[in-house]
């Protein structure tokens, strides 16, 4: 049975409503089945793709609800499994897909699906000494899929007869294969030889290194598989955002990787969360696995209580959103517009800086305007001491991907345990001397500036102190927020600024005063404050500045 075609047929005839990207991916893969391009290196084998489906429905038993009953997969699950396992390389006969991202709302049978796939890979995938790992940031999360698999085994006489539960893993003696749960703080991540890596709730993983290490551990296997099944999350610029954007680009045809399968169940626009007919786009198991009444209750509660909305948007509809206390929504922050340095060559700017108390993140900003152009262009650079990064790594605190940002040229790692403010001066000078970006004025926090102000002045910059408080910040903060909402701020998709803005809450005081604060003590908002300091100067000297711009 070709479950892929059956699923797509029901989508096409309107029996099943699904997301735009799911429809596009299935359409493209079915076209490759029926009329493969000349020289196409893959082919679809219906029977091979159905093997794991038959394995799961024959041997895996329900561990919840009707305990011990056969596990019957839904059509969307069968189609996904058959796609994942049925596409093969013509040259080797090995699997085409080595990695997949399966995005769907909570309570749509994710753990059950993962457990069934993991047991198939352990027992029936023709791989000797297979190593199957369920991974997460914390061991408790990593053990969820393993625990579900163990419970399935307990309910299945056939699996109990061939598989052994040991202290830390599940063991299949016939091929000396294991299934184990690992966390990012495990001491055993190096030296693995993974056949399958199961990542449940990718959005909860902040450390990209965990993903990289586990993916590299599959490199010596013949047909390894990395399976990521997740909902969306409220933490921005983590590994989830990176992988989700890659999956979107692959689904949309903007990028090409024939070994990555993106299946993204999500609402196609934010307003669909209030339309019951569209809920199934992010919840393919709605009615069969996930209860409609439960979801309806969540939605109704979110309508009446805005604090519940981000959780419902992320967890039930896979629409990326920030924490409920943030100043700007992710929709307002997100802007895909980019620019080249040549486009801001020989321009006027207003500088802003948020200097750390020497040991933390420092942000430098240039707010640029061009003649006859309503866009506000933003350049930023960040600075962090080497000692701070080493401390975070030693404590296994995955605060942010600082080293990755440094590799991209967005952040300078200062030697020692202090930020070298002369390097901040050097960045402003570089922008002026190499790119002819002339800073009209530079706004700064006078409480932390110290000698840096005099150093900047000696290099020809006009410095302007900015009092850090609601009296100074309120109106510029409103105007800055409105500019982001109107999509006129082009920050060149700087992920550090996105992260800082996503960490920024708003504190209200008096009749109409606001100021930025961290949503939690562990988050950083330095980039947002640096830009806001520049925006204060922008508002204060708008006429004079724009006269220079022309």
TrEMBL record:
Pfam families for this protein: TerL_ATPase, TerL_nuclease
**Terminase large subunit-like endonuclease domain residues:** 255-535
Q: What does the record list as coiled-coil region(s)?
A: none
Residue ranges of the Terminase large subunit-like ATPase domain?
76-245
Which PANTHER family does UniProt cross-reference here?
A: PROTEIN YMFN, PTHR41287
What protein name is recorded for this chain?
Answer: Terminase large subunit
Species of origin: Ruminococcus intestinalis
